[in-house]
Amino acid sequence: MYRRVLSATDLSEPSLLALREAGAIARESGAALAVCHVIPTIFDAHTLLPQDREQTLVRIAELEVEAQRLLEQEVSRVLGRDDVEIFVERGNAYAEVVRRAEVWGADLVVVGSHGRTGLSRVVLGSVAEKIVRYVHSPVLVAREAKKSGVVLAATDLSDPSLPAVAAGAEEARRRGARLTVLFVVDLTAAAFAAAAGGLFGAIGALPPAALQRETQEALQDTLRSSLERFGATGEPLVRQGAPAQVIIETAEELGAELLVIGTHGRTGVARIALGSVAERVVRTASCPVLAVRLATPA
Length: 298
Known about the structure:
The protein is α/β, with parallel strands linked by helices. The protein has helices at residues 13-29, 50-79, 93-104, 126-134, 162-175, 189-200, 209-229, 243-254, 276-284, and strands at residues 4-8, 32-39, 85-90, 108-112, 139-142, 150-154, 178-185, 235-240, 258-263, 289-293. The protein folds into two domains: 1-143, 3-Layer(aba) Sandwich (Rossmann fold), CATH 3.40.50.620; 145-298, Rossmann fold (3-Layer(aba) Sandwich).
């Protein structure tokens, strides 16, 4: 499935969890594995004093050597292997991880989440969040999760979200898990019209319960077609409510060991917007999240 897996680490406990997950994925996929650590450029202000500048450069060189040593030690301790490529970069943490991922040709980046439970889950580590937002490849936000045998893929049936179905199917096969594909109907009048209009023609006000049931059945058929399109088997699930909240609640209800979601990130300026639903899910889900975006044309 993957050929090159890059683990971003700051040597914190969450990033070491990400390293273990990246190592497992690389081993199962027969993929090359690399680790990236970034030393922040906090010493570059001494440009007016040559002697300070020289001392700074020496200190940075020492830090790079020490970081290389620590990374080699942790990779050996956590993964028990010595064939992992190690990159020690200097600069802005998220930007350097994104740059290294694209230069190295990573087709999966694994990061740790600094979120926990309760209120602190609202804030994903800013570096991890920006990596998810900007990097071209899929990103796995690693979190502790029990092996439940359930993978949940959320889709809005738009082109950017369809790769989430394919990725969810592949992950379910890799893990020997059951796949559930979820579509959430947002029952505000405007949102329902957008979701159902393509199935039944133009719809104005919120329709009666009978038409809502027909729409739900039609959406389940569409989800089955999406599964068939990718040669996958799974359970189609249609629920109603606020999409991000329902996706997170469904993952918790099913005890999903992985939640897969499509993002609307692109290149250039458009890559700034991850999409409000995907962004909230990535930030606040209690299980690992695989964020998958539509590949852009070369």
